[in-house]
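Mods, move this if it's the wrong board.
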Amino acid sequence: MPKGRKTISVNSLIDTVNNMLASGGYSREQRQSQMVVLEKVLFDTGNYRGYRLLSKREVPVAELPSINIDQFGEPDPDYKALFHLTDDTRVQYHKGTV
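Not the wrong board. Structure tokens:
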């Protein structure tokens, strides 16, 4: 019996990478690699819909967020403070209709 072609949905891949980017256990370099692969798939399939930055409450304790916002979700009025001590690999990709 021949083996069939195996595929996964783009949304499933987005969910998997988003979970990895928000969780602990991965280095910054590993998260960057995951982002490169996901963005390649999203652009190649016409499914890139952008991403949003994760706040401190959305990343593991003692790890850097990608944006500094207050407990109400409001950005710091000082633009430099928004990105002081942040990690640009802490993002969540948007899903489209795939």
